[in-house]
């Protein structure tokens, strides 16, 4: 029997190429998309009014457990070093009453309201908090499960080797529901890139989980760590199962040395995540794409103790990617959107994604002439459909959660 709560017919909408189509949805899946797609008997019909149809957005890298979204302003007086930010955040979270469950739910709802239907979040696991933050985000994932496909990365934000007991906690996190194993700066934080990467890959193999590593390490240090990581990907047969987040070193190396690394990254099917920050080197977007590397986008932290910036709107992140990489042509701005849609779904391994029959019905309508126009103007979401259910209309979340 058809689930009528996850079935609808969306008429009079436009694809990116300008074609006017209808979309037939049943049981949360797209069953037909095209000019001749017919409404099924008894299914609610929505007139799209000629709006642009986009797939649900994908957030490839964020930290929903530590956000201050919706809370009073946090006064940021932290020092300039990475370790300053780590220590400041750990202490603040212990003493401020910050609730990872409540904050992750508030931010996840805001993501859905703005059209995000797939999301990868890193969640802190350390010897101070144990699995408390993970438990809060697991609760949010359960609450949002019908409308938000959430992947959880067990992330050692304070380091792994430098805080004995963290490895065991990461193993427990993976056993209790985390989807991906995180890691952080094996040289500059853990102080021993060989031992740190060995521990990370052994743990991933033991629990049969993919890896998503934060690699902030600059220049030659980052390149050395990246080479070690790629050696392990190859030796342990983890092609297509590793994401390198940030990868600042790829934006700072001489072109010849960089391209040698990029060739190996492409060969081993390692994906690259960038938040396209304005203040540090970034991996070369177009060169990565030309070499067949999946490079995709994410917000990183949103309104937390690390940074006051960020909003849960992937059209804005696409715009910031466009600005950082000087994307001006309409076809180039479509690439910026790809970073928060198809490329992000591939990079994170989200299945059944896109505007095609058989895919999960995650749809966004905006009043924009083209994809480039949508990225630049970031219009109010006219309609958001998640897993076949209308969850937001005219920029407002419908009370379905």
From TrEMBL:
Gene3D superfamilies named in the record: Metal-dependent hydrolases (3.20.20.140), Urease, subunit C, domain 1 (2.30.40.10)
Database matches in InterPro entries: Amidohydro_3, Metal-dep_hydrolase_composite, Metal_Hydrolase, Metallo-hydrolase_Enzymes
Keywords for this protein: Hydrolase
EC code(s) of this entry: 3.5.4.1
Pfam families noted in UniProt: Amidohydro_3
MF-aspect GO terms: cytosine deaminase activity
Domain Amidohydrolase: 46-392
Source species, domain of life: Bacteria
Name assigned to this protein: Cytosine deaminase
